[in-house]
Amino acid sequence: DGLEARVGELEATQFSTTTKLQGDYYWAIGAVVPTAGTSNAAGTGSADWYKKNYSATNFVYDARLNLKTSFTGKDLLYTRLRAGNFGSSPFGGKGYNITYLDRAESSDGVVKINRLYYRFPLGKGFSVQTGPISRNTEFLAVKPFYYGDDFKGLDFFQLGGAPAVYNKATGSMLGFKWKQKVKKGQPYFAASTSYVAPDGNTGNPEDGGIFTSGSKASWLTQLGYQAQQWKGTFGWNYEQCGSKMSRRGTEAAGRVQSQACSYNGVKTGGERNSFAVALARRPKNGGTLMPAVSLGWGYQAVSYDNLNYTSSSRNQTGAALTSDGATQIAGNLKDENIAATQSWTVALKWDDAFVKGNKAGMSVGQPTFVTSTRNGTTPFDAGYVWEWWYQFQVSDNIAVTPMLFYSSNPSSAGAGYSQTSTQGDNPGVFGGILATRFKF
């Protein structure tokens, strides 16, 4: 009788018979400061400019409430409520895009519906995901890296070394996935494809909608192989004119996303084809000696149907047009002159690092940088970025993680300034956060 009474009370007071509520709160306190560059000028991009505008210590948060509803036990109606205050901080991409954290919501405390989609099985091994607010990287055949499952630092290191392919396109989406049916624990092949129109709610077909010439859409397709200790993936993303690259890379390469949809009043028919290759291996057992190793490389080719770009000379080197030229990138890096970009990442993660349950990680790579221009000039916009972190698993629900990171060329020195400028060379930046995550 007592058990029946307790069960009856539980049924009467439960949140829902079909829906689970999950909370995920991320707090971060930290700062980003310039580490090099001249101190005698405050022009845009200089060390003084960054120190003056973006070097304060910030305390920011990202809060998520996830509603997971299932009607059959095999389907998922997913609704995420999200709020955060990263928008004015360097961790929200202010100053330089590369300092953007993966967990960086910029709603200024306003709670918004951040995801809304429905996923359901369709035949043997197939599943479908569709919704008005859905993200392509959350419906992949195989996640490219073992890195990033536990702690998410800089956004760039969550993208498999290829931010042009895994561009986190979010909006009106239709996706299909296939996974080979095998016994549990056995290797399998998988494939996925998804179409995302970020402005699918826009009525103007030249500036939005779905399956229009102005959708700014991304079509991401991935093939993957997953074994017990290693995996390999190949990704291809076809992007329409105006589609966005996740958090960009260098400031110069970020200009690719505007894609020069028109030039001198003529529609260019611009488009991008991006490719990614990744390999990852993890040890059979955790520990402090052998890490999980993840390697990723990305390539992006930019093409136009109606553009013959000849407006800058071949002898330009990427030097700025003026001393404060971070916003006046030299002619060889104008949007319509970028022909190709590349990027890469090497990421290491140690499970049970020193203490069972704790984890550590290190990642290094080159964010998206220009490797080919239409007029043959050299952009000199490449740079490196690193991050290091150690996660203390305080309890099942609380984790505390200090992280340090460094970027050697966050705003494309060659593209924004002369290599020998005395008016304010581009600085590197060094940053650190103490992050705390609460889950329930």
Could you write a compact summary of the structure shown?
This protein has helices spanning 2-13, 47-54, 251-254, 413-416, and strands at 19-34, 58-69, 76-84, 112-121, 126-135, 170-179, 188-197, 218-226, 230-240, 262-263, 266-267, 271-281, 292-303, 338-351, 359-373, 385-393, 398-407, 429-439.
Mind explaining what this structure looks like?
This protein has 440 residues and is mainly β. The chain contains 4 helices and 18 strands. The protein has a 16-stranded antiparallel beta barrel with strand order 1-2-3-4-5-6-7-8-9-12-13-14-15-16-17-18. Strands 10-11 form a two-stranded antiparallel sheet. A hairpin with a 2-residue loop joins strand 10 and strand 11 (266-267). The protein starts with a helix and ends with a strand. Mean pLDDT is 85; it is low at 319-330 and 416-424.
Descriptive keywords:
Porin; 6% helix; 4 helices; globular; two-stranded antiparallel ribbon; 440 residues; 18 strands; mainly beta; 42% strand
The tally of structural domains comes to 1
pLDDT < 50 stretches: 319-330, 416-424
Mean pLDDT: 85
CATH class: Mainly Beta
How many runs of DSSP E, i.e. beta strands?
18
Shape: globular
Main sheet summary: 16 strands, antiparallel, barrel
The CATH topology assignment is Porin
Topology:
Elements: H1 2-13, E1 19-34, H2 47-54, E2 58-69, E3 76-84, E4 112-121, E5 126-135, E6 170-179, E7 188-197, E8 218-226, E9 230-240, H3 251-254, E10 262-263, E11 266-267, E12 271-281, E13 292-303, E14 338-351, E15 359-373, E16 385-393, E17 398-407, H4 413-416, E18 429-439
